[in-house]
Each structure stands twice: as C-alpha cells, then as structure tokens.
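Bench notes, afternoon.
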Amino acid sequence: MKVIGVISGTSMDAVDVALADLHLDGDTVVLTPLGHAEHPFPADVRTGSAAELCRADTRLGRAFAAAAVAMGEADLVASLGQTVHHWVEDGRCLGTLQLGQPAWIAEATGLPVVADLRARDVAAGGHGAPLASTLDALWLADLAESSGKPAVALNIGGIANITAVSPGADPVAYDTGPGNALLDAAVLELSHGLRGFDVDGELAARGTPAPDYLAALLADPYYALPAPKSTGKEHFDLAYLHRTTSGLPTVRGEDLVATLTELTARTVADACRAHGAGVVVGSGGGLRNPALVAALTRALGPVDLVTSDSLGLPSDAKEAYLSALLGFLTWSGVPSSVPTATGASGARLLGSITPGREPLRLPEPAATPVTRLRIGHPGGTSARP
C-alpha cells in the first residue's frame, strides 16, 4: 500500500512529508521511497494558553493535511505530529504531547490516519522515543551482521538520537542530547530574531570553541544517565544555556556558536563510540551544517560517517518515511515499538486510527514477525544496506 508520512521535528523548521510504497515480503518489510517534500512551518503557531494550544492543534492539522494532499494518491496517512512537550522526571517519561489534529488530515484526504504514535509506548512504561529505533533496527540488522560490528543510526534534529544495532544483540536507542536546539536558540538571540539557525555553519566556522563554556555544558548530568532515556527542548533551551554559562566570561557570538556546535558533535560521538560503532549512518537537518559535520567527523575519529542517502534512504525525509513505516505496521497489526530502545514493558501496536471517508476495513494481522527492512527502488529492485 502507499502510505504518506508527515512529521514536524523538534526544530520546528518545516513540515516534512514523504510518500512510500510499503509491502511485506515474509519477515521483511520493503519500503520504496516515492518522493518527499518540505512545506513551510506555520508562522502563527504558538503554544501557551489552552486557547492557543487549540489553535496550534488546528493549524498544524491543516498544515499536515495540505502537505499530505500535495503528495497525491495514497491508501493511508501516518502522522507523528509536532511534539510540544515531553514530560520526563527522574529519568522516567510521564507523558508526551503531539499536536496536529488528525481529523483535519482525514477530512482533507479522505484517507484513514494513524496518529498519536508515541503515547501508547509511554503508557507501557517507555519514553515514546526515539521511535526511529523501529526503522533503524530493521534496516541496519543485515549491515551489522555482515560487518560484524555495530552500526549506529544517527539523526540530528532539534535533539540528536542514536540507535545502536549490534550483531546478535537487542538494539539500544536514546536521545544523546541537543542536536540543533541550543545552536538555533543562540543564533536566534544573537541575530535579534533575524536568523533561526547558523546558515551553512558560517558563524561556527568563524569561531573557536570556548573551553570553559564547553566544560560547563558537558557537565550536564543527562549525558551520564543510562539508556533508555529521552530529552527535549523543555531541558535544552535558551534559559538552560544562560543558566549553565552564568558567571563565565563573555565570549564572542561566533565562539558561542562554535562551542555549541562542538557540544553536539562531542556528545553524539561519545555515544556512538561507547557502542563500538563500526559505522555511523547519519540523517536529519544537522547534516546540512558543514561545520557540525566537520566537528562530528573529527570527534568520531576512525569511525566512518556516511549518510542514509548513500544507503538508499533520503536523509532529509528519513523521519517522514519513519512515520509512514509506523503507520503501515500498525495498519498491518504489527507491534512496532522496540522495548530495549524506549524502555517500555513490551512491544506495542502504536497510535490511534481516525477513519477516512469510508468505513474502516483493516486487513488481517500479519502472520509472520517482521525482522528486517529493505529499501526498494521505484524501478522495482531493492537492496539491503
């Protein structure tokens, strides 16, 4: 079936949408990318009061609906929504909230919509994140087994997360810490609201990391917490940056941005090396930042950094294709959470289904457990990484 996946990540920079052809081939799900796009994030979306939250839910739902309609014909839509709050206390996730009302998507497309994909995992004791572990664990299993070394999938959005897929072992996944979150917040403040991110890493390239700032930031207890764990911009925000660096000598804006770039690179690389990574497969908006990629490459040392594009999965659209995969698995009756990655008490069917124009007619649940994922090609061939 053709599935449209939509998501807006923690950077809130765009609505990402992708169209995938998905089918089961025994124990393998075959995902063929059919196209993806970015749509501007609604500029008037703000959260705060209950009224503002309602407006944001509606406006995001309409934005996701417009993005889905633009992708053309499909059988199903899956929406990961926009995370506006991720409630974590003492290392345990107590709740998570995503906006983007699926009724608007169903109304605009006429298709059933699988949405609210994180909440069930949280209810089962998990973090509801990183759900990328579902795609990564299926996709990179063969690569890890053939090389005999762990393959680590990395996504750098507002928050960075990894999935370590090791031969003969359960996958491990977690948020490593800030990806673009602190960088974007600092650049927005330094530019007095004129720039939302460090375009092409220009500011970082002109600066030098400040050792005392970097040391203060690296001392955050989050990095030492055991997995599974998750975090968000509720923790790593501008106020956090000001608190952590309070009392330190003032540095140039370029040096601050270079420091935050190094922070992301260092914490990601430390996590990847801790799992003995043989290769790191990167995706997400952070890979568009040449300064961050250069810093990460240095920090990883001899560990190869490749993009998901080189293995057939578009880096900019990986999370949208993830959304499509999760929706397809739920529609097929296949539990799609990875307990060793999220910390849930067991694998669960994820999401809630909003009917389209027609009555719901779910297929018979898949009879064979899904253990692998292949990336297909529109021409009909497919290959494992």
